[in-house]
Specification:
By secondary structure, the protein is α+β, with helices and mostly antiparallel strands. The protein is built from 10 helices and 12 strands. The strands form 2 sheets. Strands 1, 2, 3, 4, 5, 6, 8 and 12 form an 8-stranded mixed β-sheet that branches. The protein has a 4-stranded antiparallel β-sheet with strand order 9-10-7-11, sandwiched between helices. Helix 1 runs parallel beside helix 2 and helix 5 crosses helix 8. About 50% of the residues are buried. Bound molecules: adenosine-5'-triphosphate. Adenosine-5'-triphosphate binds next to helix 1 and helix 2.
């Protein structure tokens, strides 16, 4: 295929951030990645990724984090769009606009979300209509967290975190996210984890029974106690003031708190909206967390929110609702 198969001119996908409820880091694999066993939850903090047919490839990033994100060919959204174009034999450049609300280098998979959104939006714009399996395979090529950004909800990840199994759980959880003003580089956090564990025999990672029981029951108190992250000591070693943030959260009503992914965001679980407001105020007043956001989870993965046709105008909300709605081939 060398040209678009639809009359769409623009498509916007919305993609959530993630927190890791549990992250077990196993031994280093021959390819340099670590064996992981993780439980992801998609939370209601989103980037919107819009793609439009254009004369040349390009990307614009809007929002408070725009300066931290590359606006060239290294942007993960552009890389995702180009990968799909290559695979599908498409020769139609797009301009990508990212309205970014997911903090950058925060352990919330913002770049992965943008890659997933670009895949889904370009897939619709170009009329490729890839199967869910095909999109997931491209997502995994782009990064370990990209398949989960497509899937959303709550899921177990194994391998590099890219082999997913949805977790059927109950419950809607309220999170308070304590952000840092300095990001952490994921490779640096893994290197610090390896340094701290040097000489220690690291077992193969396995999801814990307590996490699965908590998610099945939907009991926020049990989930709060089950939160854990093997990268937390490394993140705290690189940003020691996170200890203080954790302490303030636990002293102010959190049911549990954990560094999300490679950090430095700390995700606090609270029992309800009122508690989330109290905790957000306490964290902000302490000065220990430069910014605080609140979100609920689980939420759905990448989905299309608008599609615009060519001369005939907007199609409004798209009927196509994400990878689960794709035809299988
Ligand atoms: P993860 O938890 O997936 O390891 P993260 O959430 O900690 O990653 P990201 O926000 O994905 O971190 O950003 C990691 C780096 O990727 C940033 O330093 C940024 O320069 C780069 N990057 C490339 N494209 C993007 C994008 N579209 N959005 C955010 N960061 C991007």
């Amino acid at each position: 295929m060398s040209s678009a198969q639809t009359s769409l001119q623009g498509v916007t996908a919305r993609v959530p951030a993630k927190v890791n409820l549990e992250l077990m880091v196993g031994p280093v694999r021959p390819d340099g990645f670590h064996h992981l066993a993780t439980v992801f939850q998609a939370v209601g903090l989103h980037d919107d990724i819009s793609v439009e047919t254009a004369d040349d490839w390009g990307v614009t990033v809007n929002g408070p984090y725009a300066d931290l994100v590359p606006a060239d060919g290294t942007n993960l959204a552009i890389r995702a769009a180009r990968l799909l174009a290559r695979e599908a034999g498409i020769d139609v450049p797009v301009h990508i606009t990212i309205d970014k609300d997911i903090p950058v280098a925060a352990g919330m998979a913002g770049g992965s979300a943008d890659a997933a959104g670009a895949l889904l939006a370009c897939d619709a714009l170009w009329g490729v209509w890839s199967s869910r399996t095909a999109l997931e395979a491209l997502a995994a090529e782009l990064g370990s967290d990209v398949p989960f950004a497509l899937l959303g909800g709550t899921a177990m990840g194994s391998g590099r975190g890219d082999q997913l199994a949805p977790v059927l759980g109950r419950g809607r959880y309220t999170w308070v996210l304590a952000l840092s003003d300095t990001g952490l580089s994921t490779p640096q956090v893994y290197a610090e984890c390896d340094r701290l564990r040097a000489g220690v025999r690291v077992p193969e990672p396995r999801p814990s029974a307590s996490m699965m029981t908590a998610l099945r029951s939907g009991d926020a108190r049990s989930l709060g106690q089950a939160l854990s992250n093997d990268l937390q000591p490394a993140a705290l070693s690189l940003q020691p003031r996170l200890e203080e943030v954790l302490r303030i959260g636990m002293d102010n009503g959190a049911l549990g708190g954990v560094v999300s992914g490679s950090g430095p965001t700390i995700a606090f679980l609270v029992s309800d909206t009122e508690r989330s407001l109290d905790l957000a105020v306490a964290l902000a007043a302490s000065g220990a967390a430069p910014a605080v956001k609140r979100a609920v989870g689980p939420v759905r993965g990448a989905h299309i929110i608008t599609a615009t046709s060519g001369p005939r105008g907007s199609l409004g909300s798209a009927g196509h609702t994400g990878p689960s709605g794709l035809r299988s081939s």
